[in-house]
Write a structure and sequence with these properties.
It is built from 18 helices and 12 strands. It is α/β, with parallel strands linked by helices and 419 residues long. Strands 1, 2, 3, 4, 5, 8, 9, 10, 11 and 12 form a 10-stranded mixed beta sheet that branches. The chain is globular. It comes from Alkalihalophilus lindianensis. This is Extracellular solute-binding protein. Keywords: Signal.
Length: 419
């Protein structure tokens, strides 16, 4: 289904390379000025990061498609390979920022607050069809006054990967539907060489679970993950490792990440993102795996969503051309080209249907999660809160500290830093 469409379309594989290859300078200099009617070209810059050579190819192809349809605009792509936000902020402050750039939902509230991001409401026309976006993803880039500052270019969610062969050997005919079933199956699946469940113990993966009992990780822009309701929600994950012995993190079995831990058979089940699909298919084609939505917790569905938007530099003097680029890349045609690879998923429901992701047995669970996911974003202090959570949660997960004590200490430290 998907591979046939991809071979026919062939349009998404060059894309990220151009974004990564160029170099941004003051939004780019125009050879003739914006909106020129004399056949000359307006040059704009787009800055982002590169996750893989595949991603580069898809970005290049999508930009090439835009330039073919907009011959009066030339896009120069620049990549920031390391410390993206630090470098980007320095460029923006110094007046050397790009016209258009990637902005992760995690960092969006803080950067929007500075005033360097252009509001987009006045550019968005009715036929752009904002309602087609999955609303939690779009809302991640709204300001406090509901103004839209960015349009989500793609998303990734979490789902449950399970090894079909290992489940069958243990007598199971399918994946768990509830968290209680997952715990029971993990016990049966754990052997001398395999853990029933692999855990990546960071807040970006666990935030939806932490809030499943009614507690909040962040309240009024302050850390609140020491709340007993949060501790109670996360305790089962800790207990699976320290009490039942049925869970472990990747580094405990010599793996660098969750996908590798699963691929090597060191975990029978793991919660991972859709980026794991091409990793498995290309590097571990013999692994017989399935994908399901995350098991329900307290009867409720949940997962995490990670999304990045295209935003415009408020200081750009090429705003019309910049908007035309954003409009194309987040419109139906551009998004279809960009997300055809499966590396990331569309943020528009119509594009997910066009690409047959919605009913696909592998991609479908990820698409389903976009409607109820907790977006990896919050207020401006989430980066500080996240750092302090990670400092202490891992110690509890590894059995070195009581979870409640660890999270309370981390909460207090985070809030002192915020103040």
């Amino acid at each position: 289904m998907m591979k046939k469409w991809f071979m026919t379309m062939g349009i998404s594989t060059v894309l990220l390379g151009s974004v990564l290859a160029g170099c941004g300078n003051n939004g780019g200099e125009s050879t003739s000025g914006e909106n020129s009617n004399d056949g000359e070209v307006t040059q704009i810059t787009l800055t982002g990061w590169q996750s893989s050579p595949q991603e580069q190819k898809y970005l290049d192809e999508t930009i090439a498609l835009f330039e073919e349809q907009n011959p009066d605009i030339e896009v120069t792509i620049s990549t920031i390979p390391d410390s993206y936000m630090d470098v980007l902020r320095t460029r923006l402050i110094g007046g050397d920022g790009p016209d258009v750039f990637y902005l992760d939902a995690f960092e969006a509230p803080g950067l929007i607050e500075t005033g360097v991001v252009e509001p987009l409401d006045e550019y968005i026309s009715e036929d752009f069809d904002l309602d087609d976006f999955e609303q939690p993803l779009l809302d991640a880039f709204r300001g406090d006054d509901e103004t839209i500052y960015g349009l989500p270019k793609d998303t990734s969610t979490l789902a449950l990967f399970y090894n079909k062969d290992l489940l069958e050997e243990a007598g199971f005919d399918g994946p768990p539907a509830t968290w209680e079933e997952l715990e029971e199956m993990a016990e049966a699946l754990t052997t001398d060489s395999t853990y029933g469940y692999g855990v990546v113990p960071d807040l970006a993966r666990l935030m939806f679970m932490a809030e499943s009992n009614g507690g909040q990780v962040v309240t009024d822009n302050q850390a609140s993950f020491g709340d007993p309701a949060v501790v109670e929600a996360l305790q089962p994950v800790v207990d699976m490792r320290n009490e039942a012995g049925t869970a472990a993190e990747p580094s405990e079995v010599g793996s660098d990440n969750g996908g590798e831990m699963f691929a090597l058979g060191r975990a029978a089940m793991i919660m991972e993102g859709n980026w794991t699909i091409p990793f498995l298919d290309e590097n571990f084609p013999d692994v017989n795996y399935g994908v399901a939505e995350i098991p329900t917790i307290n009867g409720e569905q949940g997962t995490m969503a990670f999304t990045v938007s295209y935003v415009m530099n408020a200081a750009s003097d090429k705003k019309e051309a910049s908007w035309r680029l954003i409009e194309f890349l987040t419109g139906k045609e551009g998004m279809e080209a960009w997300t055809a690879s499966g590396l990331t998923l569309p943020t528009r429901a119509s594009v997910a249907e066009t690409l047959d992701y919605t009913d696909d047995e592998i991609y479908g669970p990820f698409v389903a999660g976009t409607s109820y996911a907790t977006v990896w974003s919050d207020d401006t202090n989430l980066p500080i809160i996240n750092n302090n959570f990670g400092n202490q949660f891992i110690s509890a997960f590894l059995g070195q500290r009581d979870l409640g004590e660890a999270l309370k200490e981390a909460e207090d430290v985070a809030n002192r830093e915020i103040q």
